[in-house]
Fold:
Amino acid sequence: MTFDQPTSPDIQAANNQAPNNQAPNNQAPNNQAVENQAGMNRDRWKVAYHLFLRLLALFFIIFTLQSWMRAIGISGAGSPGFDTMPAYWRMAIAALCILHPVTALGLWGLFAWGIAVWLISIIVQLAMHLVFTDLYGPDQTLVIFHISSFAIFIIFHIAIRIAANRK
Structure:
């Protein structure tokens, strides 16, 4: 005897009845199938979005390690320690040493505040390397990373909104 099939004729008859105008044998009406498909598409987009945020969190863990290494002076050849850095670098490194791990935690945990801290971190780093290039120098790789990750973030939000509106 298997548990997949009912054993009595009464149970079989009850399973074949269609309560609330549903089709027999668990077949959904056509409009319900469309809603289920739209919900599945929205769920797929949300899963991909959550994976994207967690991937960003991993990058911010790497950024955290880089900023901490720079603060203690082991980030590169001839890199000064925190005590011998100019004041503007000390201020930036201190802010990034706090922003990066908080951003990583917020993005990994899928918290709403994590996105807000991520946006603050992006603004700070873009300002450093686009506006104040005479102080911090250009870092085109970081700028491209932040702009492209923000663009992907916007695309995810648009796709999730479109999938939610398809009902």
Notes: The CA atoms of residues 39 and 164 lie 7 Å apart. The chain has one domain: 29-165.
